Every structure is written in structure tokens, then in C-alpha cells.
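Team,

Forwarding the record for the chain on the shared tracking sheet. I've put the sequence and predicted structure together so nobody has to dig through attachments.
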Amino acid sequence: MPLNDRQTDFKRYLKDQLFNRVRPLTFDELETKAGGLASLLFEDLTATEIAEVLQELTQENAVEMALGGSIVDPTTFRPWIAQRREEVETLRWDAYKKLLVNRDWEANVINTLDSQTDDVVELLGDPMQVDGTWPRRGLLMGEVQSGKTATYLGVLNKALDYGYQVIVVIGGHTEDLRQQTQTRFDTDLLGIDSETWEDGISNAAIRNVGVGDIHGLRAHLMTTVRHDFSKSKRGSSITWVEGGLPTVFITKKTPSLLNNIRTYIKSQAPGGRLDIPLIVVDDESDWGSPNTRDKEDPTSVNKAIRALLDVSTRSSYLAITATPFANIFINDQAAFEFVEKPRRGEPVADGPGTVLNDLFPSDYIRTMFPPSTYRGIGTYFPEDGHPAINTEVEDCLAIIPIKHKNHHPVSALPESMETAIIEFLLGTAIRRIRDQKVRAASMLINVSRFKSVERQVADLSVLFLEATAAMILGEFARQNAARSAAAKRIQDVWDVGFANVTDVVWNDVAEKLVEIAPEFRVDLINGDTAKERAKRRKLMTVAEREIDDLVPKIVVGGDILSRGLTLDGLQVSYFVREPRTMDTLMQMGRWFGYRPHFDDLVRIWMPETTRADFTHSAQVTDELRETLLDMKARGLTPRQFGLRVLVHPDSVDIVAANKGRDTQVIEIGPTVWQNKLAESYDLTGEAEVEEANQAAVETLIARLGPATSVKTSDEFDSWQNVPLDAVQDFFRTFQGDRRSQTFGRGADGTLPITDAFKIAPGSDRWSVVLVSSGKGQPHWFGEDFKVFMSVRNKMGRSRLDGHIRLDRRRVSSAGDLIGSLLTSEREAMEAEPRFTADGRLMSSQARTLFSIDHPILMIYAVTAADPAPHKDTSDLTQVETGLTRIAVAIAFPKMTQEQIEDATRESKTYQVNQVYWRAYNGFVEDEGDDEVDEDET
């Protein structure tokens, strides 16, 4: 049973004790002390009522939210929040936390949010850091309708506590979205009801709401629910610096408004640039923000955001989205020269402009995980289906095809849509019985992108709703009245569609329908109705708005019913659309989110093809998150580890073509290495890992047996016909640098290169060779085997993490591979010379790769006998004299076309960003430092 008002107050009081700053209670203490606290402050509660409160708190205590993780570039990041936490009084965050308690958030979720917001604020940069400039770029990746706004509101409350002064929030691409965001900021960060304000700002009457009722702190509010930052405000005398109050803008994603804010800030800042830190939050950052034109001439919105960030010497750009595909596809090396457009009558500025980098999240990517009560794409679209999904919408497609034109005639509602409306009526009645109070309830109808068609559907929905309500009042109010076909239809929908509901009986539902039927209404939400809806809201009092928000409504619309628009209490979704791109598809899933006490009432109608697209999108999203976890496990940064997104040939595109203009499409995995040499040129900088690599070689030798070794044509010690499992065991210990995309150990503990072993021809009979072609000092593997080390004087040590990189990205020298063949193999190969397409004799390496019929594992000891600077001196320093590392090179034999097709039958197509593409093609065919014979070059 739901709690009564006094129980709710007691529950809120108990939660407050969990967050008491002086002496917070643990959950166990709360259980034992609840009775005593109730006897003092809630003496009217019975023991049963107290037990019911504790039972609900216990259920909430089982709700968990994972903290999430960050992929961070340590060269641009300086930890700072720990040392300042004790000296800063977080009044705004404390008020926000109290607000979440009042909204009945679970305690565990609030605690995780506290830690998560600490992490994100730290990634934004220290607002008190005054040395140097720092344009930071980051990405916060969440789930659709999962509470991303609540998270970044917590981040911004805490950011203001720690000293940030200017916040610009790009709150959507439509005025509806911006107003929704502004309303949320009014209660959750600003504490002022801006919807009741008139046109002025400085002399407006103030009504505190939300956090404003808790802390009473102020801020310079530059926008309101009714008004964005217009051109007139841009030139106004409103100042923000007086009293040290922070300044907050909530603006729409249009270049003119962003430029208004930039112009205003420049007029307030000495010299035209702020010397105080600026945060720009880009909500739904994958829409409109990525550049879709030439990198030297970016789109207007992209250019405006980059120019706005440049107005401060310390700017932090926080991109937020649930569909980050377009963000990770941004060219990480793109920049353009920004030249200030002169005002009327002013001369054009001389000299070059300012070089502004694109919005690629180069400094960090943060993944957020929702609480366990979240219902997302993985919930509703698993491989084996979900009972909430109904794909029987052929009647709708017959009336309104997926592809139709503007002003397409709609003569009647599809029967399936009428059934969905009935489900909404029934579900709302069930909720009223369960909750014993009125809560927001809504239904979504999205069947067209054309406003003319949306209008027809809305009008027909009104007629059906009115007729149904009249029938309910006329028949269900009288117990013994004869039932019409329409009345029997409602009961049939109950019998079939709500068999899963066992806590409510039909007679109670029918009685409740009679009570609430007149309340339902249809709202048409699109650009044609925006002014009318705004005018109606403006004429309402605060109390009337609160009542209006609780009216159960059927919302009809099109594309505007996506991208951040929240429908409170969404129960039924009738979605007969087939978006062309995955990001749009996922954003249109407004039914994702939290459905407390009514997740069994959720109903989703859509075509089977759309359901399949959602199922594929769920797989893609899971894989992207796994890739980010792998990135984190390896300690990689967004600039070091490329990102890939799975493409399905029979499904939707990932993003629109112009958003993916800097991407490449490739086939990936099983990894096919054929007719190629794979080399571990990125080596560990950690002594314990190097010791393990040395031990791995010695263990392999001991397993193969010293007595079974044979000499190769260049007198290298080798073992022939080595089984695959012995090689796999070796690579379970050996590893290169963890950031290597080939020899770095991933989150699953394996090396990516090992994927290619099973499909390589002759993988059951490897050759293992200790290469001894170098001119360095002897290096021993155990007591029996000595090699002369290969000299790599220009190997470098990373300034960032200390890992070792070999010059020219090569381990082997020319002649090593042919020298690893047995004499008989070499003689047979040289008896049949091979030539390139232009008639030149193939190099020995090319000939060897062409002729071998099994893989060869070549093991090296490399050293810097006389260190010299690496050619990349910006990232790598010279190593110390005598530094030694174990490295490997693997020669994979050539495969026939049939073998390649068999091996790649299970491969997948990926769309990859520029970072991935460069790494994918980053092998350099150059020689090492050892002397090379001319006929081998």
C-alpha cells in the first residue's frame, strides 16, 4: 500500500538523518532508532505505519547505481578537489541534495551522485587555478531519459560552490526544450521561479522555489522561461560582476543566441576575454554541435560554440548525450582560423585570426550508469523480446505509411491506436488505485513528421477520447446497464492486455474510470502550437500550472517528441516511425526512464522493423560502453585509442552522412593477419612487467625443451612444430605496453593479436625463434640460450607514462625473417625467385612471408647501447644507456582468398573515427638501427 502523507513526511525525515552533516545515521541505525524518533516527532503514527515506512526504505536501500568511469588525458589533467574539499562549504550542493531527498530519491543513488559529481567537477578543471590557460573538452555519456540532467545539475551546483562564476547551458534546439531546461534550472540550481517574471530582470519580483527555499542563495539569471538571451539584452547595461554572484545563461542552440551571449561577455570582460573560468554545458551535444561542413569553414552553431569557449582564458566544454556517436566521430585534429566579424562601420582587423580547435572530447570521456530501477534500451529490446512491445500495427501502416507526404489524408484512427488509448485509460485508473493520489500520466502518439498529419491524428484522437469518456460515464456508472460493443471492447482489452496485473480487480478499475474519464485530454505538441501553449501557461497562476501538470494527457507530435523532451508519467507509446539513423532512433525512445510502481503498465507499439532496429542499437551501445571500459583498463586517452561503432547492413545508419564525414568504414574481427609482420614496438616501462616478459620466454623454452632446439639458416636457436596452446600460454604472460592496440592487454585480460592465431594457416605448428642478429651485448634466456641484443639507440621513453617506443615502429631488422627459416626452407624459397608487379625482385621479407606455410614467433632482446634522441622529441625522451627490453615479432603466412573469406565470415562492419583509422593504418615499414644489407632494403 502507498504511504499516507504523515508516513511520507516521516520517511523524508528519516532520510534526512542519513545525510546529517554533524552525525549521519547508518541505515542499520535508522532501523533500530525509527520507533524512538517517531514517538518524539510523529507520535500519531501507529507501529504498523512505522513498519510500512521502514519496509519502503528497505526496498529503496536495495537500489544501486554504479559510479561510472572516466577516460582521462593525464597530460591535461591536474587532480585538485581532494585538497579543497575540507575547506569549501558546499551550500548549493547540500541544498540540491536536500531537494533530492524531498523528491524521494534513494539514499544510495544520492551518495553515488555525490561521488560522481565530485569526479566530473574535478575533470572540468580547478576554477582557482590561475597559472596558464586551459581550454578543456569533455564528454558525459549517459542513457536516454536516465537522469543526465539531474547529474549535470548536481555538477553545476557543486561547480558554483568550488568557485566557478559563469555557466552557459545550451538547453536544446527548440524553444520547448529550452523552456523545459530553464524550468528545471529554476528549481534545481537557481532557486527562482522565472516563469512568473515579466520582461525585466533586475527589478523583477522574486519567488523562491526548489533549492531557493532551502539555501536562499542568488545568481545573476540572464534568461527566463519566457525569454532567451535576446539581442536587446546583449547590449543592455545588466552587469554580472557586482557582489561576486555567479551568472547563468540557459539558451537555445542557435548561432545568433550563442553569439549574443559571446558579445555580451566580451563587453563585460576587460580586453574582451574573461580571466575567470567559464563552463559551457552542451545538452544533447550530438545534435547540431558537430561540424558537418569543411573543417576550414565550420557550420554556424559549431563555430559559435568554439568562439564562445574562446571568450575565456579558462573554458571547460562539457558535452552531454546518450547517443555520442557524432561526438566521437569528430575529427580530433580539426581546427579553423576564426576572424572576428567587424561591427558596422568598423574596419576589418589586420593579421591572422584565432585558431580554434573542434569539439572532440580530447581531455576526457565519462560514462555514467543509471540506477538499477532504470528501464532502458536493454530492458525493452533484448534479443528474445519483451512483453511490453506490440508490433501489430499493420492497420496504422495501411492508413499512414512510413513514407507519406505532407497533408496526407487520415480518415480514421487505426484500430490498434484506439486500443493503445484504451490501454492508457486503464493504466491510469490502475495507478490512481495504487497511488491513492493524482500523479502525472501521459501517452505518446508519434506517427508522422508532418504537422498537417499530426493535426488530423490529434483531432481524431479527441473525438475517440470524448466518445469513449461519454460511453464510460453512460454505461460503467450503472452496474446493470447493457454493455455496448465499445464497453465490451474496454473490458476485453483489460482481460487480455492486463492479465499481468493481479493487485487490482476489474470492478475497481471500472469504478475508477467513471471518476477520472472527464479528466483526459489530447495535446498537440509541434511548432504550430508553441505560442498558443506558452500563452495559456502565462495566464495561469502557479497553483493552476501545478494542477495542469497532473492532467492525464495524450501527447500527439512528431520530431519534437524526442531529443530531451520529457513526458512525465509516460505509460503508453504509439510509435510508428522508422528513423533513418541510430542516434535519432534512440533519442525518440521517450519511454525509457523510471516507472515507479507502474513499469508493469508500460505499453509500446511499433513496427517489427523498428523493434529490430532498437535491438541492434542496444547491441551497439553495449559494445561502445565495453570499448570505453577497455580504454580505461589500458589507461588510454581519447586521442590515443580510437573508437568504433558497429554497423548493421540491414539496419539504420549510425549517424547522418554529414556527421560521419570524417569516419571510415572497415571490417573487423576475427583479426586477419596474413602475409604480414606484427611487431611489439610499444614496450612496457614497468620493471615488474619486463621481469614477467623475461620469465615468459624462459618458461616457454623450458616447456619446449632445450634439447629439442634446432639452428636456423642464420644460426638462431629455434623450435619447430610448436603447438598453438604453447604460444597462447606464452602470450598470457607476455605483453607490450598496455596502450598498444595489438600487444596491450585488454579489459578481458587478453592481447588483441591473439585473435588472429586460430585462423592463421598452419597455426598448429608454429616456429619459435630466438633472434640473435644484433650487434649488442649478449643476453641470456635461462642458462642455455644466449642472443646478441639488437641495438635500438633511438628508442624513446614516454613523457606521459614512461612506456618505451622503438624508433620507426620496428622490432625486426631486414634479414631477420629469412634468417629465421630452416636452411632447407630457405633454399627451397630462394630456388623460386619472386618479383613485384613492376618486375623488381621482392625483398627477402616479402618473399619469406609469401612462402611460409605456418606462423613464426620471433623473440628479441633490444637495447640502447648508445642512446640518441627519438625523432618524436615532443612526446618521448631519450632512454638511459643499457636499457633492455624483450620484444616480439610474428610472421603470419599468406592466406588464400577462400581462407580469408572463411576467416572473415563472422567479421563485423564498423564505422571508426580518425584516431582509430590512424592506428589501424599506423604500421611503418622502415628498418631499425642495425646495419642493413643493400639488397635487403
